[in-house]
Structures are given as C-alpha cells and as structure tokens.
Amino acid sequence: MKNTTPYKIAIGLALACILAALVMAVMGRLAEAGPLFVVFFVALAIGFKGYEHLKRFSYTVIIFAAVSLAMYYPAHFVSYGDFKFSSLITPLIQLIMFGMGTSMSLHDFAGVVKTPKGVFIGVTSHFIIMPTIGFTLATISHFPPEIAAGMILIGCSPNGMASNVISYLAKANLALSITITAVSTMLAPFLTPILMKYLAGSFIHIDTTKMMFDIFKMVIIPIGAGLIFNRLLSGKAKWLDTAMPVVSMFGIAFIIVIITAAGRDSLLTIGPLLLLLVLIHNLLGYTLGYWSGRLFKMNERDCRTMAIEVGMQNGGLASGIAKEMGKMATVGLAPAVFGPLMNVTGSVLASYWHKKPTGDASVDKPSDIPEEVELT
Question: How far is CA 7 from each of CA 16, 18, 48, 287, rounded to the nearest angstrom?
C-alpha cells in the first residue's frame, strides 16, 4: 500500500505557502511573494502524485509553477548573454512533432476509410467551430490587434495529442480521435494560414505563403521523419518511446515559460480577461463539438470524441507559428494560456465522462484510470 505521508506533507506545505502569499498580498507586498507561489505550485504537484484522481493534474500544476517563476523573474527566461531563448521554440516544436510521428503509423490514417463520416465531421467541425469562436471573442475583446490575433490563431490550429489521452480517459472513440488528430495536423499547413488570412487579416498582416512554409517545416517534415523512424525501427528503440513523452512535456513547458516571460507586461494588463476568454473558447469548443456529433446522429462515444477533438488545440504549434511571425510576446499569449488550461478542463471532463455510461457494454464495465496515463 502506498505511503501517502510525504504527499500529505507536500500538500500541507502548499497550503502554508498560499496562505502566506495571500497575507503578503493583503499587506501590499504581492511583488515579494513570488517564491511562495512557486513553492506552492511545486508542492501541490508533488502532493497530487499521491492521489489517483489528482495525479493527472501534476504536470499542469508544474507548468503553473514555471509560469509564476517567469512572471516574477522574466529576465532569466528571455536570454542568457547574447543567446535568446526564443530561438529554441521552433526546434522544440519540431522535436515534439517528431515524437508525435514516432508514435504514429499509417494505420492511424486508415480510419479515414473505416469511419469517413466521423473523420469528416470531426475535422470539419474543428476547423469551423474553433476559428469562428476565436474570431468572435477577438472582435468583442477590444484587445490590442496582435493579442486578439493570437486568440484567432489558437482557434485555427489543429488538434493536440493530449486530445487522444483525454478521449481514452473519457471512454470516447480512441481510434476515431487518433485519426482526426492525424488528419487535422496534416491539413494544418494549408488550412491554418488560409483561415488566419481570412479571419485575422483585419487585425494584423498575414503572409499566407510564409506561414504555410513555417508550418510545413514544423509539422510535416518532423512527423514524416518520425513515421519513417517508426516504420524502420519499430520496437527497436524502446528508449525513445520512454524519452519522447518526457521531452515533449519539458518542451511544451519551456515554450510556455519563454512566451510568458516575453509577454509579462501585457499579461499583467489583460491577463484575467484573456484567461476568461480563453476558458470560454475552450468550453464552447467542447459544447459545440459534442452537439455537432448529436446533429449528425452519432452515438455517445463518437459525440464525446467530437467534443474533445474540437475543444482541444495544439497550443505548442500555435506558439511556434507566433514565434515565426516575430510576434511571440503578443500573438503567442493566447496559445500559451490555452495549453495548460485545456489540460485542466479536459481532465475534469474526462473524469466526469469516465463515470457516465456510454451505452456501449464493451467500454462501460467498471475500471480504474490506469496509473501510467499522463497528459502531454
């Protein structure tokens, strides 16, 4: 039986730190409370590891710790001497996409033939619903044009790999989820720039051709290399299967920290409203995605898949696009907020649906969420 004492101590430490931070805030010393917030999130992440239904949130809480560090000490995450950390974003995205490719095979695309209706509805809904919501929220937000364009960018991005994990935990149609993610990702070099030109062109200048090339080099080339690697060395490089999820988690966290540090001043001004609008964007994606499945008379499992595949975006790729546009500190803010937030909402949704019957006896039998499942 697992000894939970260390985890309880960690949660106790977290509570002590947040209480101390709140006292300092009341005393007007919030600017000095940075270390307390960082320790609070780190201790909370450790504490969550001791509890089955909380452990999936540990990675997201660690990101909050890193973001707190970046908000309080931004200079440390902008550059080191003459080296700018922003130059690492594109290589990190390529590495993450390579890892995605190594976990895929041509069988992931076979679902287009097996379930063409579901794939078509999922991909079409994704690239209609999320860009439209992003454009609407950006228009009513009255944010500076570049920050508003970032809300549209996250809406125009493809699905993230985290959607597949959430689909599994939510007892959705995992095979359909994987296929929709694969297809939307491969379509991104074409659809994302076109949608950005049409929807965000009134906010900022969009170079469609350059954006297509940028996404191609960040997505198609590394995923293609990963597919080839998987095809030739399948089962022969188990160390890579173990390492890539860790590399991906670190890469995404570091990208968010770099963008947070670069956009700190803007976040201090519009942070709460941006957080609220990003949350609305995410939740509306789940809701309208689910009902798009209902509209076409899909079963419960497939409707859950539609909700998750529409509502969850590839925030890392959107951040990479913002960097390639030279607007990381503005256009990149909404993607940086969306990523951690969707992991929280997605986990909550998955936990809720995990307990609800789907009507499919093969997946409704009682089960526990596997210990090894992690969000990346």
Answer: 14, 17, 7, 35
DSSP secondary structure, 139-171, as one string: HHH---HHHHHHHHHHHHS---THHHHHHHHTT
Same-domain check for residues 13 and 158: no
- Residue in the block written with tokens 């039986």: 1
Q: Do residues 58 and 92 both lie within one domain?
A: no
For residue 101, tell me if it sits in a domain.
yes
Same domain, 171 and 53: no
Q: Which residues contact 142 (CB under 8 A, 6 or more apart)?
A: none
Beta-bridge mates of residue 79: 84
Distances in whole angstroms, Cα of residue 324 to Cα of each of 59, 61, 138, 331, 362: 27, 28, 21, 11, 46
Radius of gyration for the alpha carbons in the chain, expressed in angstroms and rounded = 20
Does this model's pTM top 0.90? My answer is no
Residues 250, 93: contact at Cβ < 8 Å? no
- Domain contains 371: no
Distance, in Å, from the CA atom of 354 to the CA atom of 304, rounded to the nearest integer, reads 11
Distance of CA 282 to the CA centre of its chain: 11
Of 22-31, 237-246, 323-332, 349-358, the poorest mean pLDDT is in 237-246
**Domain co-membership, 237 together with 358:** yes
Q: What is the number of structural domains in the chain?
A: 2
CA distance 361 to 5: 39
